[in-house]
């Protein structure tokens, strides 16, 4: 929902004028953006007269061989200043969000334009096309070239043995190193933070729809550039108890999409102090607003989650496990301590068939009991199973008064997988259910487009303490400033025992082929 305070539009027709360089400032005047379209779209960014980015590049290649942004003929340019208010129906950082920016739009003769926005908190740009036919995109150039060296917080992807490097759970610690030490073979998922001394610079994206997500890789001594997974050509099913789609070959393009569309925003968040990173919500502001208006039924809350402890109940008069009695016990506990939800995590059904209920689990009885206690249910699902059984599963969940559908083990962000997220969010919204994604990439503002998508993983959580030391205080103190800049985050809760760094011992190895579950431990 938006209520407009002020929109001031200044349009300049440049046909025949020949202007090739434009300058804009942020509303507070501190950030300056210079854009050049002389041969290639290039831009530079400074803060209070200190250069941050210099000659950064932006271009998209289409299948005909044409480059959008390289040797493109300019048609017009226009500027506008916008000062609006966004009201978030499901507050994340704040409910009332000022949306104040200055915008430059460069329209080119070959049916595309590039929009630049300058906020007090950073800069963003995106491409928009208005072509009649569909587009095949072999390549995008998103090169972020820094004016000086700095320190980068780099969540480097670790290639799995069973698939290509674009398969990841987006859960890695931050390597802290000088930016010039990033190798061209090193790839990280965004957001990435660069400490440039004068400012903290966040590199990420927003409005990621029908397009692959942006990784980053080393490019030169002072630059990183976007890297995008190509579209899947052949997929197979791999895994043990928890199976997932794995891409075995890919098309020679990153996306096939509509000819008339807006592409994802490339976001450069800029803050001078660490504390301001926490409230930088550019990503949310840049995302597409929701189509429907009523989201009053979306009610985030506090839930139980049992899988780490394996339904390890004591002092009870029944056998603990995946059974009706155990979940009624959890429902009683939730009601007694004021929780809102009880999760039925992996184990309530066959992961490959949501209608093959585990013996001893009476879902109708559990649901009725939960309703009598004013507790609602969260149901875990395997992504490939949910996708195959989607409509029938949601009908069953609706009858059970399920509030949240959790789905897991995607571990990719190519265009096909990005579209899976939209499909699940749209379907659950029709049934007035919330969604949460695990084995997931960052939100990139998706929770604005689909407010029922209340949270997602894409972060090292306490579950890692079972099999590694990745979840540690040093990492946990970084994620609010880096990972949460791109949107909602589900930090996996877990263990109630404490240990310091010297006494912590890893006792099990559970992360096998992407299956971070107790059954994968040995």
Please give a structural write-up.
The protein is globular. By secondary structure, the protein is mainly beta. α3 packs parallel to α4. It is built from nine helices and 33 strands. α7 links the parallel β29 and β30.
How would you briefly describe this protein structure?
With 522 residues, the chain is mainly beta.
Write the layout of secondary structure elements.
Layout: E1 2-12, E2 21-25, E3 31-36, E4 42-47, E5 50-61, E6 67-68, E7 74-87, E8 96-108, E9 112-119, E10 122-130, E11 135-137, E12 139-145, E13 151-154, E14 175-178, E15 187-189, E16 192-195, E17 200-206, E18 215-220, E19 223-227, E20 232-238, E21 244-250, E22 255-257, E23 260-262, E24 265-271, H1 274-278, H2 282-286, H3 324-337, E25 341-344, E26 349-350, E27 353-357, H4 363-372, E28 376-382, H5 383-388, H6 390-399, E29 402-408, H7 415-430, E30 434-437, H8 446-449, E31 453-456, H9 473-478, E32 511-512, E33 515-516
Parallel strand pairs: 25-28, 28-29, 29-30, 30-31
Antiparallel strand pairs: 1-7, 2-3, 3-4, 4-5, 5-6, 5-12, 7-8, 8-9, 9-10, 10-23, 10-24, 11-22, 12-19, 13-14, 13-16, 15-18, 16-17, 17-24, 18-19, 20-21, 26-27, 32-33
Helix pairs in contact: 3-4
